[in-house]
UniProtKB/TrEMBL annotation:
The keyword Signal applies. Residues 1-20 form the signal peptide. InterPro entries: AB_hydrolase_fold, Peptidase_S9_cat. The keyword Lyase does not apply. Residues 118-175 form the Peptidase S9 prolyl oligopeptidase catalytic domain. Coiled coil: none annotated. It comes from Candidatus Allocopromorpha excrementigallinarum. GO terms for biological process: proteolysis. Keywords: Signal. This is Prolyl oligopeptidase family serine peptidase.
Amino acid sequence: MIRKRVLVCFLFALMAVCLASCESGSDQGAEVTEGSESYRGFVMDNVLHSPEEGDIHYNLYVPESYDGSSPYALFVTLPGYEGLYFQGVGANLRYEEFAFEAMKYNEKMIIAAPQLNDWEETSARQTIALTQYLISAYNIDRDKVYLNGMSGGGETGSLVMGESPELYTAYLAVSTGWDGDLERLAEGKTPVYMAVGEEDSYYGSEPLKEAYARLRELYRERGMTEEEINHILVLDVKDQSYFTERGYSDQHAGGASFAFDEEIMGWLFSW
Protein backbone atom coordinates (compact mmCIF):
# COMPACT_ATOMS: atom_id res chain seq x y z
CA MET A 1 0.00 0.00 0.00
CA ILE A 2 2.83 2.41 0.91
CA ARG A 3 4.61 1.64 -2.37
CA LYS A 4 1.41 2.36 -4.31
CA ARG A 5 0.99 5.70 -2.55
CA VAL A 6 4.59 6.64 -3.31
CA LEU A 7 4.11 5.68 -6.95
CA VAL A 8 0.92 7.72 -7.23
CA CYS A 9 2.61 10.77 -5.67
CA PHE A 10 5.54 10.38 -8.06
CA LEU A 11 3.24 10.20 -11.09
CA PHE A 12 1.33 13.31 -10.00
CA ALA A 13 4.60 15.19 -9.51
CA LEU A 14 5.81 14.09 -12.94
CA MET A 15 2.55 15.26 -14.54
CA ALA A 16 2.88 18.65 -12.84
CA VAL A 17 6.40 19.10 -14.19
CA CYS A 18 5.26 18.17 -17.69
CA LEU A 19 2.34 20.59 -17.57
CA ALA A 20 4.56 23.40 -16.34
CA SER A 21 6.98 22.71 -19.16
CA CYS A 22 4.22 22.84 -21.76
CA GLU A 23 2.77 26.07 -20.41
CA SER A 24 6.11 27.86 -20.38
CA GLY A 25 6.64 27.34 -24.09
CA SER A 26 9.26 25.71 -26.26
CA ASP A 27 12.01 28.16 -25.25
CA GLN A 28 12.09 27.26 -21.57
CA GLY A 29 15.67 25.98 -21.88
CA ALA A 30 16.89 28.84 -24.05
CA GLU A 31 19.95 30.75 -22.89
CA VAL A 32 20.15 34.50 -22.43
CA THR A 33 23.11 36.82 -22.84
CA GLU A 34 22.47 39.78 -20.58
CA GLY A 35 23.21 43.29 -21.77
CA SER A 36 25.90 45.38 -20.11
CA GLU A 37 24.50 48.88 -20.63
CA SER A 38 21.45 50.62 -19.21
CA TYR A 39 19.12 53.42 -20.27
CA ARG A 40 16.39 54.97 -18.13
CA GLY A 41 16.09 51.85 -16.02
CA PHE A 42 16.29 49.35 -18.89
CA VAL A 43 19.06 46.81 -19.30
CA MET A 44 19.89 47.13 -22.99
CA ASP A 45 20.40 44.52 -25.68
CA ASN A 46 19.75 41.29 -23.84
CA VAL A 47 19.73 38.37 -26.27
CA LEU A 48 17.49 35.33 -25.96
CA HIS A 49 19.14 32.50 -27.90
CA SER A 50 16.09 30.55 -29.02
CA PRO A 51 16.74 27.11 -30.54
CA GLU A 52 13.64 27.53 -32.71
CA GLU A 53 13.54 31.27 -33.50
CA GLY A 54 17.18 32.37 -33.39
CA ASP A 55 18.58 35.34 -31.47
CA ILE A 56 15.98 37.73 -30.08
CA HIS A 57 17.26 41.14 -28.95
CA TYR A 58 15.32 42.94 -26.26
CA ASN A 59 15.64 45.70 -23.68
CA LEU A 60 14.25 44.86 -20.26
CA TYR A 61 13.00 46.81 -17.26
CA VAL A 62 12.58 44.96 -13.97
CA PRO A 63 11.39 47.12 -11.04
CA GLU A 64 13.78 47.27 -8.09
CA SER A 65 10.95 45.98 -5.92
CA TYR A 66 10.80 42.67 -7.81
CA ASP A 67 12.22 39.78 -5.78
CA GLY A 68 10.21 36.92 -7.25
CA SER A 69 8.06 36.42 -4.17
CA SER A 70 4.90 37.85 -5.74
CA PRO A 71 3.62 37.86 -9.34
CA TYR A 72 4.21 40.95 -11.48
CA ALA A 73 2.48 42.09 -14.65
CA LEU A 74 4.31 41.90 -18.00
CA PHE A 75 4.16 44.46 -20.82
CA VAL A 76 5.72 43.82 -24.24
CA THR A 77 5.94 46.82 -26.57
CA LEU A 78 6.77 46.42 -30.27
CA PRO A 79 8.26 49.43 -32.10
CA GLY A 80 7.82 50.87 -35.54
CA TYR A 81 10.46 50.87 -38.28
CA GLU A 82 12.66 53.42 -36.48
CA GLY A 83 13.03 51.09 -33.51
CA LEU A 84 14.07 47.86 -35.25
CA TYR A 85 17.41 46.32 -34.31
CA PHE A 86 19.35 47.47 -37.37
CA GLN A 87 18.54 51.06 -36.37
CA GLY A 88 20.81 50.68 -33.35
CA VAL A 89 20.57 49.36 -29.81
CA GLY A 90 17.87 51.21 -27.88
CA ALA A 91 16.51 53.05 -30.92
CA ASN A 92 13.01 51.94 -29.96
CA LEU A 93 13.25 53.43 -26.47
CA ARG A 94 14.66 56.69 -27.79
CA TYR A 95 11.94 57.05 -30.43
CA GLU A 96 8.83 55.85 -28.56
CA GLU A 97 7.61 56.43 -25.00
CA PHE A 98 5.13 53.57 -24.57
CA ALA A 99 7.53 51.62 -22.35
CA PHE A 100 8.17 54.55 -20.02
CA GLU A 101 4.58 55.76 -19.82
CA ALA A 102 3.47 52.22 -18.97
CA MET A 103 5.40 52.45 -15.70
CA LYS A 104 2.87 54.99 -14.45
CA TYR A 105 0.02 52.49 -14.59
CA ASN A 106 1.49 49.63 -12.58
CA GLU A 107 4.56 49.79 -10.36
CA LYS A 108 4.64 46.01 -10.24
CA MET A 109 5.19 45.43 -13.95
CA ILE A 110 8.14 44.05 -15.91
CA ILE A 111 8.51 45.72 -19.31
CA ALA A 112 10.15 44.20 -22.38
CA ALA A 113 10.98 46.28 -25.44
CA PRO A 114 12.20 43.87 -28.12
CA GLN A 115 14.08 45.07 -31.18
CA LEU A 116 13.17 42.69 -33.97
CA ASN A 117 14.28 42.69 -37.59
CA ASP A 118 11.01 43.20 -39.44
CA TRP A 119 7.23 43.12 -38.98
CA GLU A 120 6.47 39.72 -40.49
CA GLU A 121 5.94 36.12 -39.37
CA THR A 122 9.44 35.57 -38.00
CA SER A 123 9.15 38.61 -35.74
CA ALA A 124 5.71 37.48 -34.59
CA ARG A 125 7.08 34.07 -33.61
CA GLN A 126 10.00 35.75 -31.85
CA THR A 127 7.59 37.96 -29.90
CA ILE A 128 5.67 34.90 -28.76
CA ALA A 129 8.89 33.05 -27.87
CA LEU A 130 10.18 36.03 -25.87
CA THR A 131 6.88 36.37 -24.02
CA GLN A 132 6.86 32.67 -23.17
CA TYR A 133 10.44 32.86 -21.96
CA LEU A 134 9.77 35.86 -19.71
CA ILE A 135 6.72 34.14 -18.24
CA SER A 136 8.87 31.13 -17.39
CA ALA A 137 11.88 33.13 -16.14
CA TYR A 138 9.98 35.55 -13.88
CA ASN A 139 7.02 35.29 -11.53
CA ILE A 140 4.44 36.72 -13.92
CA ASP A 141 0.73 37.21 -13.26
CA ARG A 142 -0.77 35.35 -16.23
CA ASP A 143 -3.87 37.55 -16.00
CA LYS A 144 -1.79 40.68 -16.63
CA VAL A 145 0.27 40.11 -19.79
CA TYR A 146 -0.07 43.08 -22.15
CA LEU A 147 1.03 43.71 -25.74
CA ASN A 148 1.35 46.94 -27.70
CA GLY A 149 2.53 47.60 -31.24
CA MET A 150 3.02 50.83 -33.18
CA SER A 151 3.24 51.07 -36.97
CA GLY A 152 5.22 48.03 -38.20
CA GLY A 153 5.20 46.73 -34.64
CA GLY A 154 1.42 46.85 -34.81
CA GLU A 155 1.49 44.61 -37.87
CA THR A 156 3.66 42.17 -35.94
CA GLY A 157 1.29 42.43 -33.00
CA SER A 158 -1.67 41.59 -35.21
CA LEU A 159 0.13 38.45 -36.41
CA VAL A 160 0.74 37.52 -32.78
CA MET A 161 -2.97 37.99 -32.08
CA GLY A 162 -3.69 35.72 -35.03
CA GLU A 163 -1.49 32.99 -33.64
CA SER A 164 -1.47 33.08 -29.82
CA PRO A 165 -4.11 35.53 -28.58
CA GLU A 166 -4.64 33.58 -25.37
CA LEU A 167 -1.07 34.37 -24.30
CA TYR A 168 -2.02 38.03 -23.75
CA THR A 169 -4.56 39.81 -21.57
CA ALA A 170 -5.10 42.73 -23.96
CA TYR A 171 -3.55 44.28 -27.08
CA LEU A 172 -3.13 47.92 -28.14
CA ALA A 173 -2.64 48.48 -31.90
CA VAL A 174 -1.42 51.98 -32.76
CA SER A 175 -1.10 53.73 -36.15
CA THR A 176 -0.89 50.47 -38.04
CA GLY A 177 -2.60 47.95 -40.29
CA TRP A 178 -3.84 44.42 -39.62
CA ASP A 179 -2.27 41.26 -41.04
CA GLY A 180 -3.27 38.68 -38.44
CA ASP A 181 -5.88 35.93 -38.49
CA LEU A 182 -9.10 37.49 -37.20
CA GLU A 183 -10.83 34.11 -36.93
CA ARG A 184 -8.17 32.96 -34.48
CA LEU A 185 -8.44 36.19 -32.50
CA ALA A 186 -12.22 35.84 -32.36
CA GLU A 187 -11.77 32.40 -30.83
CA GLY A 188 -9.44 33.76 -28.17
CA LYS A 189 -11.50 36.92 -27.52
CA THR A 190 -8.47 38.88 -26.37
CA PRO A 191 -9.49 42.53 -25.82
CA VAL A 192 -8.13 44.86 -28.53
CA TYR A 193 -7.92 48.64 -28.75
CA MET A 194 -7.21 50.09 -32.22
CA ALA A 195 -6.02 53.71 -32.36
CA VAL A 196 -5.21 55.51 -35.63
CA GLY A 197 -5.42 58.85 -37.36
CA GLU A 198 -8.28 59.29 -39.83
CA GLU A 199 -5.74 60.18 -42.51
CA ASP A 200 -2.69 58.28 -41.30
CA SER A 201 0.00 59.13 -43.87
CA TYR A 202 1.30 55.56 -44.13
CA TYR A 203 -1.62 53.20 -43.54
CA GLY A 204 -4.68 55.38 -43.73
CA SER A 205 -7.43 54.34 -41.33
CA GLU A 206 -9.17 51.81 -43.57
CA PRO A 207 -7.12 48.71 -42.61
CA LEU A 208 -8.06 49.02 -38.95
CA LYS A 209 -11.63 50.01 -39.76
CA GLU A 210 -12.00 46.89 -41.90
CA ALA A 211 -10.40 44.65 -39.27
CA TYR A 212 -12.66 46.15 -36.62
CA ALA A 213 -15.80 45.61 -38.70
CA ARG A 214 -14.87 42.02 -39.55
CA LEU A 215 -14.02 41.20 -35.95
CA ARG A 216 -17.35 42.58 -34.76
CA GLU A 217 -19.06 40.38 -37.33
CA LEU A 218 -17.16 37.32 -36.11
CA TYR A 219 -18.14 38.05 -32.52
CA ARG A 220 -21.80 38.42 -33.50
CA GLU A 221 -21.62 35.06 -35.25
CA ARG A 222 -20.42 33.61 -31.96
CA GLY A 223 -23.50 34.92 -30.18
CA MET A 224 -21.97 37.90 -28.40
CA THR A 225 -24.14 40.94 -27.67
CA GLU A 226 -23.20 44.45 -28.79
CA GLU A 227 -22.45 45.35 -25.19
CA GLU A 228 -20.14 42.37 -24.81
CA ILE A 229 -18.35 43.24 -28.06
CA ASN A 230 -17.95 46.89 -27.08
CA HIS A 231 -16.35 45.77 -23.85
CA ILE A 232 -13.47 43.95 -25.55
CA LEU A 233 -13.13 45.78 -28.87
CA VAL A 234 -12.52 49.51 -29.42
CA LEU A 235 -11.81 51.48 -32.60
CA ASP A 236 -10.54 55.00 -31.89
CA VAL A 237 -10.04 57.12 -35.03
CA LYS A 238 -8.58 60.57 -34.37
CA ASP A 239 -8.97 63.62 -36.62
CA GLN A 240 -6.21 66.11 -37.41
CA SER A 241 -7.04 68.38 -34.49
CA TYR A 242 -5.99 65.66 -32.04
CA PHE A 243 -2.49 65.57 -33.51
CA THR A 244 -2.18 69.32 -34.06
CA GLU A 245 -2.92 69.93 -30.38
CA ARG A 246 -0.02 67.62 -29.55
CA GLY A 247 2.44 69.24 -31.93
CA TYR A 248 2.16 66.91 -34.92
CA SER A 249 1.25 67.80 -38.49
CA ASP A 250 1.68 64.20 -39.68
CA GLN A 251 -0.88 61.76 -38.30
CA HIS A 252 1.32 58.69 -38.61
CA ALA A 253 4.23 60.23 -36.72
CA GLY A 254 1.66 61.56 -34.27
CA GLY A 255 0.83 58.00 -33.29
CA ALA A 256 3.70 58.32 -30.84
CA SER A 257 1.51 60.70 -28.83
CA PHE A 258 -0.94 57.89 -28.04
CA ALA A 259 1.58 56.80 -25.39
CA PHE A 260 0.62 59.89 -23.37
CA ASP A 261 -3.15 59.45 -23.77
CA GLU A 262 -4.47 58.27 -20.42
CA GLU A 263 -7.75 57.05 -21.91
CA ILE A 264 -5.95 54.80 -24.38
CA MET A 265 -3.17 53.54 -22.13
CA GLY A 266 -5.52 53.34 -19.18
CA TRP A 267 -7.81 51.04 -21.17
CA LEU A 268 -4.97 48.63 -21.88
CA PHE A 269 -3.83 48.35 -18.30
CA SER A 270 -7.33 48.23 -16.84
CA TRP A 271 -7.57 44.56 -17.79
